[in-house]
Amino acid sequence: MVNKLHSLGAPRAGHVWGANARHVDMAAAPARPVPVAISAAPQNITIDLKRSAMIVIDMQNDFCAKNGWVDHLGVDYTPDRKPIKPLQKLLPVLRQAGVPIIWVNWGNRPDLANMPPNQIHLYKPAGTGIGLGELPPTSGAPVLQKDSWGAAVVDELDQKAEDIKVDKHRISGFWDTPLDSILRNLGVRTALFSGVNTDQCVLHSLTDANFLGYGCVLVEDCCATTSPDFCTEATIWNVKKCFGFVTDSGKILKALKKK
Questions:
Q1: Which residue among the candidates 62, 64, 167, 168 is catalytic per the annotation?
Q2: 168 assigned to active site
Q3: 165 catalytic per annotation
Q4: CB–CB of 94/101 below 8 Å?
Q5: 208 in catalytic set
Q6: Would you state the pLDDT for residue 219?
Q7: Per-residue pLDDT, 2
Q8: Sign of the alpha-carbon torsion through 84, 86, 88, 90
Q9: Beta-ladder partners of 41
Q10: In a 10 Å sphere around its CB, with 0-12 CB exposed, 13-18 middle and 19+ buried, how is residue 153 labelled?
């Protein structure tokens, strides 16, 4: 057909154009909303599955696995494994519902060329020991370096071909990364947050998302931290007070069953 318009847009994009040799249609109708009501705090929420994404942060070997960097430092890494089981249940159901899964992970350059001294100090405060890109004897893998064993997602969590992966190199997953552009191109308006550490990379990615205008939902049992309990308590309080909403995987699964 001579007048047929060909779709222009990334796979799963929230908005596409139609084009042929004579015309470009930039007014394509958006996808029909798929609302789901979820129990949450401080208020219950309704999200649109067509305009939501699950962001999974830093479920990486260096944080969550035996012989990883945190284990080498002598810190008990096992609390950071708590999200694994609820994520194993939740992620497949979200995928089936058409919700994109976005893995946001530390993935530093081998030369650390974009890491200023203040960021290197964060992980090597006394100037000695094993820091970013260096080789802990427990794993022999460069700490949080892109494509290293330490930066890989733990074996227990499956990453599917349709999932989206974003490398980060700051506490926030939005700073100097394509995450915001990806979410906007997907048409996302609500971001669900999970991963580690609750009070660090998860919180600061969530707060940046809030500042950028996204509706933010912390999935509490899909988050964890090796920090003291009061850090999680403060994070939950502040998310409910200032930055969004808090729910858990059971409540999301229950809501999806009713859809």
A1: 168
A2: yes
A3: no
A4: yes
A5: no
A6: 99
A7: 62
A8: negative
A9: 246
A10: buried
φ/ψ of residue 28, rounded to 5: -60, 140
What pLDDT score does 133 carry? 97
Q: What is the pLDDT of residue 15?
A: 86
Residue 13: predicted pLDDT: 82
- Of 64, 80, 199, 201, which is the active-site residue? 201
Q: Which tokens go with 186?
A: 């997907």
Report whether 222 contacts 198 (CB < 8 A): no
Copy the structure tokens of residue 17.
């154009």
Q: Which of the following is catalytic: 58, 62, 80, 199?
A: 58
Ordered mean pLDDT values, 10 residues apiece, the chain (259 residues) = 84 88 92 96 98 98 98 97 98 98 98 96 94 95 98 98 98 98 97 98 98 98 98 98 98 94
Token output for 227: 């920090």
Report the candidate in 57, 56, 81 with the shortest Cα–Cα distance to residue 68.
81
> Is pTM beyond 0.85 here?
yes
Inter-residue contact 81 to 224 (CB < 8 Å):
yes
Structure tokens at 134: 């260096």
Question: How many residues in total does the chain contain?
Answer: 259
- 54 three-class SS: strand
